[in-house]
Design a protein that fits this description.
The chain has 14 helices and twelve strands. By secondary structure, the chain is an alpha+beta fold. A five-stranded mixed beta sheet has the order 5-6-1-7-8. Strands 9-12-10-11 form a four-stranded antiparallel beta sheet, with helices on one face. A three-stranded mixed beta sheet has the order 3-2-4, with helices on both faces. Helix 4 runs antiparallel to helix 5, helix 10 packs across helix 11 and helix 12 runs antiparallel to helix 13.
Length: 381
């Protein structure tokens, strides 16, 4: 049975949600991302892209290119809520979904042809339902494999719908720049350009032996397979996360233990909240610290009992931090939890039950008012 894969990608997702929620942002160059000195662009509206702004660009550069733009930090709980709606829609269109990020996924449609009038009609119905229920526009690619489906979803953005078949595959692939192939970045692109390979069509016509002599057998095989539209990877649902964590990079390096420990408390609170939302407790707590010279330290401790409580996570991370004795020139701090146990079983001990009741009340407030609805007193300036 021939595989049929759909790739669905929301167009400028964070910016689209903001423009949906704020009429004053519509039709204007909107840039979402970190606003500090080391911030980067998370995403931007298509109006901003006309000025050369793009994702992962340093925010300072985006401000130079588009000084008239609207720059915001973003509302990530809101984006997550819209993403949940979108993935619930995905589940009605395919039983096998592989998330790639908060706003895109592969859907396996193999064997579902009898349920649809045509692949195009099926994609149009999905796009329409996403737009009707969330107000967000999606682009879709359908193809015999994941590489071609993802490539197709990007060809006619925004609001695109491209279907790649055996019949039209060569006509679609050959004119595209070779950089559209997974694994071809700036360095690899330079290597290929030196061989006069600039399009996928050029790559398809190159001699395998010549390419392997320059790039190695493995890379040559990878590039040539994709250039000919060959990709055998199945659509695979994501496994449960192996860790839950949060880290932050500072616009100005921390210079004192008190500053660092205050940040650790905030990070521990976020990790505890995320563990409880996921119905998990963790046995291992990890601290990550990066200095101004980019030297990075990680330390971990396994607890006698699994936890999802903020103060246990904090005190463990705090102890690891104090053992390092690195208090100045801190560029990044992170806290992570792993070694999961199910949270569903209620403790038989009364003190533990009281604690779980307390955190249940805290979490209800957070669910209603967001993560900042309630926090530790010493995190309030």
């Amino acid at each position: 049975m021939e595989r049929l894969v759909m790739h669905v990608d929301m167009d400028a997702f964070f910016a689209s949600v903001e423009q949906l929620d704020h009429e004053e942002y519509r039709g204007k160059p909107l840039i979402v991302g970190g606003l500090g000195g080391r911030g980067v662009v998370s995403t931007c509206s298509y109006e901003a892209r006309r000025f050369g702004v793009h994702s992962a660009m340093p925010m300072g550069r985006a401000q130079q290119l588009c000084p008239q733009g609207i720059f915001i930090a973003g509302n990530y709980p809101r984006y997550a809520a819209v993403s949940t709606q979108i993935f619930a829609i995905f589940a009605r269109y395919s039983p096998v979904i592989e998330p790639l990020s908060i706003d895109e996924a592969f859907l396996d449609l193999t064997g579902m042809e009898r349920l649809m009038e045509s692949p195009r009609q099926y994609a149009q119905a999905l796009k329409a339902e996403i737009r009707e229920q969330t107000g967000i526009v999606a682009s879709v690619g359908i193809a015999p494999n994941k590489f071609l489906a993802k490539l197709a979803s990007d060809i006619e953005k925004p609001d695109g719908l491209v279907i790649v078949t055996k019949e039209n595959m060569s006509a679609i692939l050959e004119p595209l720049p070779v950089g559209r192939i997974w694994g071809v970045g700036r360095k690899m692109g330079g290597e290929l350009a030196a061989m006069h390979i600039r399009t996928i069509g050029d790559l398809r016509r190159v001699d395998h032996t010549r390419l392997a002599a320059r790039l190695g057998e493995r890379m040559a095989g990878h590039l040539l397979a994709l250039a000919h539209g060959i990709d055998e990877r199945p659509v695979a649902p994501r496994e449960q996360a192996k860790s839950i964590g949060k880290e932050v990079t500072f616009s100005e390096n921390l210079q004192s233990a008190s500053e660092a420990e205050r940040i650790l408390l905030a990070l521990a609170e976020k990790v505890g909240w995320r563990l409880r939302k996921a119905g998990l407790k963790a046995r291992t707590i990890q601290l990550k610290l990066r200095r101004a010279d980019f030297k990075t330290y990680t330390r971990s401790r396994t607890l006698p009992e699994a936890t999802c409580y903020d103060e246990v996570i904090y005190h463990t991370a705090q102890a690891l931090f104090r053992e390092l004795k690195l208090y100045r020139g801190i560029r990044l701090l992170g806290v992570a939890a792993s070694g999961f146990d199910d949270f569903t079983a209620m403790s038989l001990f009364s003190e533990e039950e009281k604690k779980e009741n307390l955190y249940e009340a805290i979490d209800k407030i957070k669910q209603r008012f967001g993560e900042k609805g309630i926090t530790k007193a010493n995190l309030i300036k």
